[in-house]
TrEMBL record:
Domain FeoB-type G: 3-165
Cited SUPFAM superfamilies: P-loop containing nucleoside triphosphate hydrolases
Protein name: Iron transporter FeoB
Pfam family for this entry, one: FeoB_N
One GO molecular-function entry: GTP binding
Annotated Gene Ontology cellular component terms: plasma membrane
Species of provenance: Paenibacillus wynnii
Top-level division of the source organism's lineage: Bacteria
Stored InterPro entries: FeoB_Cyto (IPR041069), FeoB_GTPase (IPR050860), G_FEOB_dom (IPR030389), P-loop_NTPase (IPR027417)
């Protein structure tokens, strides 16, 4: 029996813990206020003979370094490298929620986008073109209602396709303005040389250009001081070049 890890990422209050509890039979605290999941919870579920370790990450609006929650979610996705990152979105505020999905896709293509609260969207007359969103994002997109247990089996089928490698992702990558792209192009070889090919070098270069010190600290802690010894130089080079 294969064993995969699935991390649940998403904005606060999008139903991550509700879905996590439904799948794992656990009782992570849920409710309609933000910031309940502060400690990452883990549980297990099976689907089609595959076993999954589910990891419920804290709700975050981004994967920058604005809070301990964002750092925890970011570090988990970058360093633990789950087989699948399940990005749980609120169907009634997709525009805001898709922002996090784009950030996850900059880090990994091993992702499934799960549009939750589809019951609420239907009630409000919101129509969602899943095919169009999936084509644009380059990863599977499934609509569910975790609370009403709608769409769960279809969701798990897509998680399986990504976990087993049956689905080849073409994750959407944002092209930034010329100045930023130039900065990334300069930093990228140095970042790759310093941290190797195991980590999302383009995304890391982008964050370093933005002066993300917390990410640098995490890189040092997780990859080791020795490997990271050249990085400060890389950053000062990048920052000096683009100040
Ligand atoms: N209408 C509806 N409500 C839902 C659905 N799924 C979850 N909810 C509700 O949304 C609220 C938030 O759910 P949680 O599971 O706590 O959300 P979360 O994403 O874990 O929140 P954080 O831990 O703060 O990030 C709860 O009141 C849930 O009952 C759904 O499919 N439909
Ligand atoms: Mg939660």
């Amino acid at each position: 029996m294969s064993h995969y890890t699935v991390a649940f990422a998403g904005n606060p209050n999008t139903g991550k813990s509700t879905l996590f509890n439904l799948l794992t039979g656990m009782r992570q605290h849920t409710g309609n206020w933000a910031g309940k999941t502060v400690i990452t919870a883990e549980g297990e579920f099976s689907h089609n003979g595959h076993k999954y370790q589910a990891v419920d990450l804290p709700g975050t609006y981004s994967l920058y370094s604005n809070s301990a929650d964002e750092e925890a979610a970011r570090d988990y996705i970058i360093f633990e490298q789950p087989d699948v990152t399940l990005v749980v979105l609120d169907a009634t505020s997709l525009e805001r929620n898709l922002n996090l999905a784009l950030q996850v896709l900059e880090i990994t293509g091993r992702a499934v986008v799960c549009i939750n609260l589809i019951d609420e969207a239907r009630r409000l007359g919101i129509e969602i073109n899943l095919k169009a969103i999936s084509k644009r994002l380059g990863v599977p997109v499934v609509a569910i209602s975790a609370r009403n247990k709608i769409g769960i089996s279809a969701l798990l089928d897509q998680v399986e396709r990504v976990a087993t490698g049956a689905f080849t992702a073409k994750p959407l990558h944002i092209t930034y303005n010329d100045e930023i792209e130039k900065g990334i192009a300069q930093l990228l070889p140095m970042v790759e040389q310093t941290i190797g090919s195991k980590y999302p070098a383009r995304w890391i270069a982008l964050r370093l250009l933005d002066g993300d010190d917390s990410l640098l600290t995490s890189l040092k802690g997780n990859i080791g001081r020795k490997t990271m010894s050249g990085t400060k130089e890389v950053i000062s080079h990048g920052v000096t070049a683009y100040d």
